[in-house]
Design goal:
alpha+beta, Aminopeptidase, eight-stranded mixed β-sheet, disordered N terminus
Length: 179
Amino acid sequence: MHPQHAQALAARRVGETVTVDGTPLCVRSVAHDDRDRLSRLFARLSPQSIRLRYFSPIRQLPDAQLTRFIDVDHKCHELLVALSGDEIIAEARYDGVCGTGEAEIAMTVEDTWQHRGIGVRLARRLMVLAAERGFNRFVASILPENKAALGLVRELAPSVSVRWDSGTYVATIPLASAS
């Protein structure tokens, strides 16, 4: 392995520490050994949080979804996690097709950690990474009752474009506002 590649992998694994309400959290890219942590995060979500995130009342994440979450290339697909101790309390991901300029963004924040700024921090970091990797916009599908997500996209980019499409809002977030 090339030394620079090894350093980049080590940096992704170590991450950075952010403080939320006096609690230190580690924010880093997902790792293959995060599968069980992601599954436990999902198990701690309320039915309402699950429905707002997955648009469905699913009881557990299918293995294929967990595999998709942890098997990212850190270019066209990325997933960041925030950990309190050894537990993932939030995740934010983008999925795109390299070269198209557009990627879908989605995130989950554990109920007890919601409305504390974690989602905004993860999304901003994800925006910077995506912009560095050639993307120029995120697209998010949001259920109409998810006022928190609608507020988050407006906080991320006041110039966000939001349109109604088949029962959901579709927000187009320019990454030029990433900072």
